[in-house]
Structure formats: C-alpha cells, structure tokens
Amino acid sequence: MDVVMESRSGIGLPARVFLFLLRFWLRPLMRYAPFTPRVLRHAARMDTLTAVMLAPRGTVKVPVPFDGFPAEWVYGPGVSRRADGTGKVILYFHGGGFMVGGLRSHRRMIARLSAAAGVPALSVAYRQLPSTTLPGTVEDCVAAYRYLLDQGFAAEEIIIAGDSAGGFLTFAAPLQAIGEGLPAPGALVAISPLTDLDHAAKLAHPNLRIDPFIPGPRLPEMNTLLLGGAALDPLHSPVNGALAALPPTLIHCGSTEILRVDAELMAERLAAAGVPVTLVVWERQPHVFQIFADFCREGLVSLAELGAFIREVPAAAERAA
Fold it and tell me: Domains in the chain, ordered, with CATH?
C-alpha cells in the first residue's frame, strides 16, 4: 500500500511574524534550559500559566479523575453532552516533550478539534517527567483507553489523537493496548508526531538547522530521562511496532520542522504494513502550528481537515451493516 501524500502551500503574514518570534524567543529557551529534576518540576507547573489560553466560547469541560493523573471531557462549541458511552469520541494526548503541557495548555485546540469533528474529546494529562518514565506514561494512556471501553464506547468509534509527544503516545498506547488483548481503535490522528527515539536521521536532516524552535541536538538528552538511563531498544519506538494492527491514520506536520522526519517514516512504515495512511505537509508551518492557530491561521484549516477525517470514520452501526 502506498502513502497518500498531500501538501498545503501558502503561509500568511501573521504566521511569518510568529515564526520570527519563536525562532528568537522560544528556541534559545528550549536549547539552553537544563533538564534537571528541579527544572522539570517547575516545568510541570507551567500548565497553570497557560490558563490564559481560554477555550472558545461555548466550550464545556467536565473533570474525570484517574488514579494518579487528571483528565477532562471537552465538548467544543455546538457539541452536545452525552449521558451514556455511545457514539464517536476522541481520546486526546497532549504534547510537550513528556515534560510540560496539560489540560489547560491544549484545551483551546482540543475544543476546536472537538467542534470540527462534532464529537466530544477526553483530554488526558498523563504523568510526565520527572514523576515517571516512558513506560508509566504509556500505561496512563492505555488506562484512559480502557476507561472508554469500560464506559461502553465501541473501540471502532474511539479516535485516538495527539500532538508531538502526544503523537508518540497516539501510536504507542494502542500498540500496547492491542498487545494486552484490547481491540484496536477506529482511527488515529497524529499532529507533528515523535515516532522514533533513534534520532540519527533527524540529526542529519536539513530541518535540524531551520526548525523554528525544537532544538534537535537535545533529543538524545530527553531519551536518557525517558528511559531512566536504560539502553534504547528499537521497540521503545512505535515506528518499529506491530503496525499492521493499527487502524487508518491521518498525519499532519510542518515542512520545516525536525519531526517531519518521524512523520514521514511512520507514514512509510504504516503503508508498508498495509495500513491506510495520509500524510499532509504544511508549507513552513512550525511544530504543532494548530495550537498557535490564533497566529498561524492555517492551523484552523488543518483542524477542520482533521475534524472532517474524524467525521468520516464509520460508526459502529455502519460497520455492522
């Protein structure tokens, strides 16, 4: 099976200005901030500061407590609340390098995605560094998936989505869940996903120098923390997993970001495994530009496309017919 590859050209002036600011403000911060336990604990609290990123008017959020981490239902504007576990639903894993981000930082974007798809989203603030390592994070995400199944949602109507580190979990969680005997979800949506912890290809790619804010040379440093000092095993990376078991997938990324390498590799591996996959590359857009949609207006178009894909996922009744 071949990858369906599409490109989206054009970048507006607001996005160009925003890219300039990212390059000269956020990139130096991410390049030099030390990954010490103390700094990571402070980074984990940064989600509180993002409360200023208000969800669109009409958004409804409902807390969902898990053992060890919080989550919340997000009903975007126009999406009705449900009293039972029926119909399609998004299970969303936020990005942030397994160090930062949470319910507040991504609520605005997730609400927009929920509205575009016309379905609610369960946003999961899984445990991050330094409170756990990669296996613990993946376990939290599998627990959230199992929760939806226990609530009565049909597996084929659960669409797992995520960005960046959450994009990694978008693949890693269902692979582990399937390995534990759970059914596969109905579809996957990945935004600028990290998919390979072997960073050699990324460090040799031209995007290493032009990515607006991700400091590629620090990625191996993240591995050391994620794996608790253990040696890297190829199976730590979802790109090397049993991909044939995964459902149809849509991936969006920016053309100049370093994680374009991982998006392309995952798309190629999925197609080789016989999984229907579409990769959309957006001209000069930064990493997870959808979260910056108030500045990078192309992010709104991307979210609309992601929502349309989710709308097209067949309902359980349609599959049974």
Answer: 4-315 (3.40.50.1820)
